[in-house]
Amino acid sequence: MTREQKPIDNLVLELQERAKELNCLYTIEDSLNRSDISLRQAFHTVINAIPQAWQFPNVCKAKLIYGDIFYQTSDFEETKWQITSDIVVQEQKVGSISVFYLEDMPQAHIGPFLKEEKKLLDTIAERLGHFILHQKLKTVFNEFKVARESVQGKSKGEWRIVLDMIRKTDPNLFISLMRKMLHLLCWKGVEEAEMLMKHTSIARRAGEEDSTEDENKPLKVKKIVNYDQYVETIQRLADENLPDDVILSRIQKWIQEDKSSSLIKVVESQDTSLTEIADAIRKYYHMAPEKFELPPSTIKGLRVSLLRRFFTEQLEYISIAKEYVKLTDFYKLIDKMIFPPGSHGKLGGKSAGIFLAYHILQKESEQIELLRDIKTPKTWFITSDGVLYFMQYNNLEEVFEQKYKEVDEIRIEYPHIVQLFKNSEFPPDILKGLSVALDDLGENPLVVRSSSLLEDQMGAAFSGKYKSLFLANQGTKPQRLSALMDAIAEVYASTFSPDPIEYRAERGLLDFHEEMGVMIQEVVGEKVGDYFLPAFAGVAFSNNEFRWSPRIKREDGLVRIVAGLGTRAVDRLSDDYPVLVSPGQPKLKINISPDELIRYSPKKIDVINLKTNEFESIPISKLIKECGNKYPAFENVFSVMQGNMIRQPLKYEIEDSNTEYIVTFDGLINKTDFLKKVDAILKILQSKMKTPIDIEFVSNGVDFYLLQCRPQSFHGETTADNIPRDLPSERVLFTANRHISNGKVPEITHVVYVDPQKYTELSDRNKMLAVGRAVGKLNKLLPKRKFILMGPGRWGSRGDIKLGVSVTYSDINNTAMLIEVARKKGNYVPDLSFGTHFFQDLVEANIRYLPLYPDDNGVLFNDTFLSKSNNIYPQLVPEYDYLDDTVMVIDVSEMTGGNILKVAVNAEIDEAIGFFTQPSSDVQSEREVKGIVEHQTSDHWRWRMKMAEKIASELDGDKFGVKGIYVFGSTKNAVSGPGSDIDLIVHIEKNKCNIDLLKSWFDGWSLCLSEMNYLRTGYKSEGLLDIHLVTDEDIKNRNSYASKIGAVTDAARPLRLKGKTD
Amino acid sequence: MASKEFNPFEMAQAQFDKVAEILNLEEATRHLLRNPLREYHFSIPVKMDDGTTKVFRGFRVQHNDSRGPCKGGIRFHPQETVDTVRALAMWMTWKCAVVNIPLGGGKGGVICDPHHLSMQEQEHICRGFVRQLAKNVGPLNDVPAPDVMTNAQHMLWMLDEFEAISGAKYPGFITGKPVGMGGSLGRTEATGYGVIFTVREALKELGIRPEDTTAAIQGFGNVAQYAIELYVKLGGKVICVSSWDQGDQCSYTFRRKTGIDLHELLKITDKFGGIDKVKAKELGYEVLDGEAWIEQDVDILLPCALENQVRGDNVNKISKRVKIIAEGANGPTTPEADKVIHERGIFVIPDFLANAGGVTCSYFEQVQCNMNYYWERDEVLSKLDVKMTSAYLAVSELARKRNLYMRDAAYVISVSRVAQACKDRGWV
């Protein structure tokens, strides 16, 4: 095999070799496992099986030496082309096995032999060692049986026989047992034992043959003189001082301790590699299956060490996991791990979370029936140092420097890096591992997920930045393997993609050596037509931070669930909705009327297309048309919409042209124990992990699979804020102590307040409707996510608009927070809507909701501030200025001397407060919030402002008939995100301006800027400029955008034109 | 202070007073019609899922049954007030009278928010509502229907409770049921078709052939879609529709001057009438501003979306060519705009005549239920045609003869029909 060959040819050859090896191993294993086989027979089978597994079987011969007996294949001849492995039993060489080539063969790694072949030979030798030991023990046991029969009746001294056996088979163990026995006797206060203890110190390695050397030395010497005597003395003392059954049970216990000691030694040492640990575990597992009981302290110690080596150093994690994870669980795990030789890698955050959660549930399922049969998909792991090994193997080390380059450079080079990685080869160890993994996983579609070490430290804000790739995993084995390698390479390359690097740079984590574990996981699901998909999937949270009814408590939890792959439930969606349900209150639905049910039911589904081998989002209606009720668990996922009725599908549905299927999960929620199960899982995991958690799950319609589990605080988004105390009342706008949900609210610059009293006093329905339209205008004029809407009762009332301002979602979609004020009317407090009219839109856009009850005891509501502040509303919306009594817009900064409004919410203590404070100076924390709410850095607006100034300075006003140019919106307000556009108002002279020419001039700029912005941020757009032309007339009439010029609040900022000095 | 608050019932009374003045009704008749004949206020105790009991407040207002059993919806609303229910009951009386169907006006409601109630709890409310009212409602007295936040499911629960109490089957007790459970075919098409039946008659009157007309339509929901279907069948050409884009949170107008193709558009439309604007462009439609429908150079404007769409600020954009505005939606024209339209002499088919196809079909549902014999779709629609046509003709004839604005004429005709019935019965 030469390196010049194409990787795929290479691969096929290697796979063939691998198959031959496996054949050989199977044959050997098969014969060695027969209970009746003798040593001789076994040796013959082995040497005859070997040549077939070698590259050139025709000229290959094998020889085995055991003690002084030789075994060899026919026509054997010794040559110089050979490799040999020793057969070792109990750390002693008892023989060897060699392979010879009769002729000179092409050069490979070790002479003509492949390094894989050497490894195979080692494996065979090792296996033979075990076999020989086993045979030996068998003989000893037989002797024991005979001896036991002979001493029957006088059972006294049974332990002597045991010790005698051990002395013959395992001298090291024997010595350590003797020493322990001596210690025991000392503790029991046997004087003679103490004497013996004082006067001897046998070397640990002392062999029986050593004993004769010092024969002529005086007895006084503090060294053991006669080993036999020493042993005999101890045994005699034991016999005299201890009852037989005690001795026997002690010996048994010590033997067990000894068995695990090698494992403990390996695991505790920091230097041992994963390979060694894996070997030690395998050995331990073979030698000491579950029936051996180690002392609990030893077990815990082992568990902790293993958890640390495999998963994480985090103490919180380890302290919980050690209670639930058994040693055998690691044994199962190592068989599914792929790692470089000498690896010190870990499995990463995702793997750790699911490993722990699964085992907690397993243990608890002994008590709780609902938790039984929870599964996890079959998964293989590549340890975190796999990526380094891969890069070293391909000499890609220079890529490490990538992260220190400028972000635009990184972005330009990233596609090349991806190609570079994809065209690189995997080291043979890893390749072999992947091949075995593929055999194990079968032809199921797979998902390759990153399990990064940084995730542990940084939380979910980071997890989304690396790739997860779905593979159809169809075709021949070489095809599937090559697709798998391609995907892993791409996941590896994503470590160097610009977004995570930029994110790390912002947080000072650039120098952290990012290693990334990879999970190769079977996708749970069924084949439906050309597609592969699960029946449903989703995420569930212990704490519900989006409650649509006052009857739902925070602890009732929240489930986001979608049909098909869970990708649509994990992320917030801009164009679709998952089904939301609260496991603690399953009967309280968000959507009641058929209209709402249809509007907010999921419209698309993520699937794997087995024909094109691709991950796709397709319309659910299309899937249903093609596959109908072949969909897994169809009646649990879908409901029938016929006429105006929504109901469960029948077994034999009589369809007509009006029959439509929509995703409601009514069957799942009402007819199965799904929600109870999710509820139980959330509750158990929360109580065991001592923190609210969220999980990802999936189901093929039959079984429930857990995919991920992590603390809910991981998101940052839902941690409780600190509620400041003892603020002077004038600094407080409102407080609240009912129905509080956690969630981060950005800093607020403007308050829009619809006065409940004034609103109900409006005598005319049209005026009430106008309030809704005025709010809609404000929503467009005020800086996005920088203002709050406070209004009476129910926002979005449709029927009876007395109850609240009639708005649609588009009228409020830029607010940071929607506040409903329930003022007491006479004796009763009106019900609030909890945002139900557009609840799911609010959830997907992360607009927070807060109900206020100003007339409650112990609650502050700053009426004075609201009524006495300067109301800039009439200037903003002059067309509805007659509503200035009812609608108030307050510029917080103007009224409080440069402060902003901060809304702190804390659901733990059910309190919220809106107060005036300095704009955040803590850059880090500010960034954290922004990173979550809207990923943005301060650079975005600066660059945009610079560009706006540049454009203005290039614009020849006289030539184009332009009188002035202004910037407004996010650029002016310094709140631009990476995808924001630059809003410009261009004041033109109606008669002089060639509008077409001007527009194409701006278009050119727009496209250039868009390209530049893409390089900077990765956000693509069709143009970056948003140009609004206004005329003198517009300015005079204060038409929409013209009103921004010289406006009272948030005025557009003038820019200097070319050649103008002012 | 309370008197300053907006009161829908007072508004409805004021509207009535205006018509009563035109008709010069005598005092007693005015008194009778200004207020409901009967009102029921009652409590509905409900065992909640968590074992507690909650008491809900319910109303049923029967405004007038001189022309036949009362007809009107049942609303579930968290801040329902009896004044709202009264106003809506009165509105139902006029609506039934304008299409000349033998029914009176009623309305009911329960103060509750279904969003915070489980399905079982809602079922208990429905059954409790009927238990309180069973003696005073029924196919021959008062016929409920779905309304705000109630739907076919609620109607079936109520029907079941009523039949259990009465000990017999009375499918005619309630309307809005699903087809196969006593519902009527043709319900989905009824409103849209009804609008075009009146347009067809208006064109006939104006002496214009439908084949020579073009139309612009606001909205692409149920009403608009069926209106387009029938209008195109008559030979007319629709050059644009506007529809709400859920993704962009604004509406767009889709125009093709050679005429839009309904079936082509339906293929790229979601369940709420949202048209895919990318695909529409590929099909050769111009995608214009959401308000653009109103300024098209067409003969007929059909606002079939929301209320308050033709306003003072855009009424002047209406092209000189426009001859007819048929109000498919409820209250699409503000009073301010209405004045301008009146002055410009554009022929208006007012909402409660133009979109009365819906209530007429509910009446048909009840008729079919009472005889337990259900018509085919075509039979329903042809009967609808007859009803709508004659209703339209009566209104337009009155408008022409008495030189009334169509909107006033429609009001006048319905109030006078009800007043006459009361008189004939010897009530006043």
DSSP strand tally of chain B:
12
User: What is the approximate shape of chain B?
Assistant: globular
Helix/strand order of chain B, N-terminal first:
HHEEEHEHEHHEHEEHHEEEHEHHHH
Average residue-wise pLDDT of chain A: 80
Q: In which order are the strands of the major sheet of chain A placed?
A: 6-22-21-13-14-15
Through-space gap between termini of chain B: 36 Å
Give the topology:
The complex is a heterodimer of chains A (1062) and B (428).
Chain A: H1 7-32, H2 39-53, E1 60-66, E2 69-72, E3 82-89, E4 92-101, H3 115-150, H4 158-169, H5 171-187, H6 191-199, H7 227-241, H8 244-268, H9 274-287, H10 296-310, H11 315-321, H12 327-334, E5 337-338, H13 349-364, E6 374-375, E7 379-382, H14 386-393, H15 407-422, H16 428-441, E8 446-452, H17 453-458, H18 460-463, E9 468-471, H19 477-493, H20 498-506, E10 516-522, E11 526-528, E12 531-533, E13 536-541, E14 558-563, H21 567-570, E15 579-581, H22 594-599, E16 604-609, E17 614-619, H23 620-627, H24 634-637, E18 638-642, E19 645-647, E20 660-663, H25 666-671, H26 674-689, E21 693-699, E22 704-711, E23 732-736, E24 750-754, H27 756-761, H28 765-781, E25 787-792, E26 817-821, H29 839-845, E27 848-852, H30 863-868, H31 873-876, E28 887-891, H32 892-896, E29 900-906, E30 911-917, H33 923-933, H34 939-954, H35 957-960, E31 962-968, E32 982-988, H36 995-1017, E33 1025-1030, H37 1032-1037, E34 1053-1055
Parallel strand pairs in A: 5-7, 6-22, 24-25, 25-26, 26-27, 32-33
Antiparallel strand pairs in A: 1-2, 1-4, 3-4, 7-10, 8-9, 8-10, 11-12, 12-16, 13-14, 13-21, 14-15, 16-17, 18-19, 18-20, 21-22, 23-30, 24-28, 29-30, 31-32, 31-34
Helix pairs in contact in A: 1-2, 1-3, 2-3, 3-4, 4-5, 5-6, 5-7, 5-8, 8-9, 8-10, 9-12, 13-26, 15-19, 16-19
Chain B: H1 8-23, H2 27-34, E1 38-47, E2 53-64, E3 70-77, H3 82-98, E4 104-111, H4 119-133, E5 142-146, H5 152-166, H6 187-206, E6 214-218, H7 222-233, E7 237-245, E8 250-255, H8 262-266, H9 277-282, E9 286-289, E10 300-303, E11 324-326, H10 335-344, E12 347-349, H11 351-354, H12 357-371, H13 377-402, H14 406-424
Parallel strand pairs in B: 3-4, 3-5, 6-7, 6-10, 10-11, 11-12
Antiparallel strand pairs in B: 1-2, 2-4, 7-8, 8-9
